[in-house]
Request: fold
Amino acid sequence: MRTFVSAAAVLVGLLMAAVAVPAMWVDRNIVQEDGFVALTAPLGKDPAFQQRLATAAVGTLASGANIPDVVKELARPILDNAAQSLTGLPGYPDAWAETLRKSHRLTFADPNTLPPASGASSSLTLDVAPLAGLVAKQVSDTTSIPLKAPGQVLINIGHSDQRQLIERVTVYAPMGYAVAVGAGIAFVLAFVAARRRWTVLAGMGVGALLLAGVWKLASDAAGTAVASTSSGNDVAELFKSEFVAACSASFGQWIVAAVVAGAALLAAGIAVRVAGGRKRGNIEHR
Reply:
């Protein structure tokens, strides 16, 4: 009976861990604003993405009604030059971080609290207004052309039917911590109930290695599914590609940690088994 309880507890713990770990990663790196900014901040260092993002931000200024038609042609070379040098401006890192924060708030806020023009129906909305503001300030400081950046410069990524997925993730991802606690309790119960505790350690180790493989396959499949969607916007497509790569690399670190933990548990179980066998052998020899 104790063996059955122990085996069942290990199985339950592994099943709960299979859900808890991805959920906690999503909550920490996607749902939470600080985690999202930390995950996506390096995207602003990609040269190709930088250039397209700057061009998109500058385009909103060049087509804006706040520039008189008679000076638009004169302003265009200046704006193009600002786009080329945008990422080298001192305020660029802060503007990019603010872009990410505003984008996260638009994406994860309750759609009912946002204005109709916010693009909340999209699965992810980039608001590059801070970057446009940085360009406007640079042009205004170096020329006599008064520029005022718009309050929002939105780039929608994904499709409207993916908004429900965002809402479900926001609700359920934070529950991963409670599930993780449940998994820990199950493992402790398995260890306490076991007749041969080395089998619990080994079973947990093998289970962790198997889960790491499952998470890797699921992560690759999710990345492929996201990459297969098309938004029809070059900037959105580039952001999506870089975002998927960043998510894969970040979650990959958790997978590596699971492999290391699984190998350590398996090795500990084998070591306990060998040590126990030697101890029994010495007793019998005496």
About this structure: Residues 234-285 form the longest helix (52 residues). The longest strand covers residues 124-127. The CA atoms of residues 21 and 118 lie 32 Å apart.
